[in-house]
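okkk here we go again. third time trying to get the coenzyme A bound version out, last two times i messed up the smiles copy paste (missing a bracket lol). double checked this time i swear
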Amino acid sequence: MTYDLPKATTLITFQLSTCRLRPWREGDEESLSKHASNRRIWNNVRDFFPYPYTPRDAHSWVRSNKSQQMPNNLAIDVDGQAVGNVGFTVKDDIYRYNAEIGYWLGEDYWGRGIMSEAVPIMTNYIFRNFQVNRIFACVLEQNIGSMKVLEAAGYRHEAIHRKAAVKNNQYLDEHIFAMLREEHIDLTGLPRS
Ligand SMILES: CC(C)(COP(=O)(O)OP(=O)(O)OC[C@H]1O[C@@H](n2cnc3c(N)ncnc32)[C@H](O)[C@@H]1OP(=O)(O)O)[C@@H](O)C(=O)NCCC(=O)NCCS
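finally!!
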């Protein structure tokens, strides 16, 4: 595993055994709309995630996420193609030391251990580079794969918000997973910057 330190001239990149995490860039649009436009992905994410995922959606995603020195979102690159995303948003007001982590992967790549590698890397990246004290994820009740990814990455199952979400006109329980900075153990084997 190799790690490029985020210097002024270096874009952040993580080479993992299953994939590469790297910034979004122009040219990713076609692969993005191809892999993201999937009802089985949409069923597990927020409604603002587009379905169908049009070329226009892909252009706007790439435009707003490319060229950041310390990006909030990294493309999951397999064989040069962007086939998923792992990223976070920092909350505001009294929640301003919280980051919500989120991710999706093209269905062709499910079950290869990609997200099990990517989530610990993103977790480490957030705690190392951002003033965040807690990282959390919200998982819909049917999403066993995502719960396994978070548990394996050391996240704690904190709560079930009963019927908090609505998807496809059905109320669903939302499972909250979280990790505090003081609980974070670096599972990545990356050198300290
Ligand atoms: C959930 C998702 C991110 C998992 O990514 P992935 O790279 O396929 O996951 P991995 O291959 O690392 O698998 C992690 C574990 O979950 C298990 N798993 C994966 N998909 C599963 C499923 N549908 N049902 C049950 N277990 C599943 C794997 O067997 C593995 O278990 P193990 O560690 O005991 O071997 C991916 O399926 C996805 O993008 N889904 C749609 C979007 C989504 O759910 N995003 C997250 C919202 S919270």
